[in-house]
Amino acid sequence: MAKRDYYEVLGVARGASEAEIKKAYRRKARELHPDSNSDNPNAEAQFKEANEAYDVLKDADKKAAYDRFGHAAFEGGMGGGPGGGPRGGFHGQGDFASAFSDVFDDLFGDFMGGQRGGGRQRATRGSDLRYNLKVTLEDAYKGVQKTINVPTSVACGACSGTGAEGGAEPVSCPTCSGMGKVRAQQGFFTVERTCPTCNGLGQIIKNPCQTCHGNGRVEKERSLSVNIPAGVETGTRIRLAGEGDAGTRGGPSGDLYIFIEVAQHEIFNRDAQNLFCQVPVSVSSAALGGDIEVPTIEGGRSRVKVPAGSQTGKQMRLRGKGMPALRGAGFGDMFIELVVETPVNLTSRQKELLREFDELSAENNPRSSNFFSKVKDFWDEMKG
């Protein structure tokens, strides 16, 4: 029986790309696999035919020879290029396993955690670290330099981070030949597993370092100096490159991320670049007006004029007395909010004067007069 055209077997055109050929083969492999076609006596033969076609068309040299000479390229004395090719019918278990393994790797390689074409690299980057740093509002205003102690992993000095005694280099794993993974044939499938000898590293240490026990790292607390720029807020993140955990087997270190928290202040409340300060004033100062002295975040003082008749909640703005912009120009503003304070623990004389004042000032309280007038109208309406 004459062989079918390989392109026809896979259901692709002659000008199909490598990706199109692989996709067609994957579809055929699923469709014709004997395990899924127990009721089809021809499934195994068709499955082998598809594998034979893919084994030729996936290889650039074999494909070129086939496009020029057809099946004759692999029969008689024509040969199939370097390494030979299928001769006659099904080309044997080894060639089939190689063809199907390519697709198996493509389908399931990510789940196996492997890397095609080689093992894992022995050097692994260290982990990133996080450090929470609390600063005062004054520090956030002017900027400050802080010294922090960070527990971290550093390269072992005894072995220079190699993990081997005396700093010797690891050797290639004899089980996987440095690939970091081993393959086992199970029927039609080639199963790939992490090498049990080197745990996927591809290398082993014959004589582990006594200090780090072959890890290449030791735990140590380091002191670092950190520059906190002016204008930082809670949540500001500062990155110190290479100050995280050391990598394994001489790999690069991770980074250290410092997260800033600005502590609550006893006097000032912050909203972005603006500051707010509540200042208590006496009833007489609020009524008569006058000047008050208020603190500013840099440690200075400012005089603020209180308008006569000020009420609780009255705000005055001090421009440029707020927080600096982070890594930018300019400052926010400071807002003074008045809180009119009611006197307590009055003497008899003070009470007497306040009663007299209250009798004389009925017409000087427009807000209360207006409110109680509305209340009277409300009650009259309800009664009516």
Q: Spatial order of the strands in the main sheet?
A: 10-11-15-14
Q: What's the CATH first level of the largest domain?
A: Mainly Alpha
What share of residues is helical? 25-40%
Counting helices, strands and paired strands, the structural category is alpha+beta
Tell me the fraction of residues in β-strands, as a range: 15-25%
Q: How would a crystallographer describe the biggest sheet?
A: 4 strands, mixed
Characterise the protein shown here.
The longest helix is centred in the first third of the chain and has 20 residues, at 93-112. 28% of the residues lie in helices and 24% in strands. α2 (18-32) packs antiparallel against α3 (43-57) and α3 (43-57) packs across α5. The protein has a four-stranded mixed β-sheet. The chain folds into four domains: 6-112, DnaJ domain (Helix Hairpins), CATH 1.10.287; 123-166 and 213-263, HSP40/DNAj peptide-binding domain; 269-341, HSP40/DNAj peptide-binding domain, CATH 2.60.260.20; 348-383, no CATH class. It is of the alpha+beta class and 384 residues long. The termini are far apart. The model is unreliable at 76-101 and 104-121 (pLDDT under 50).
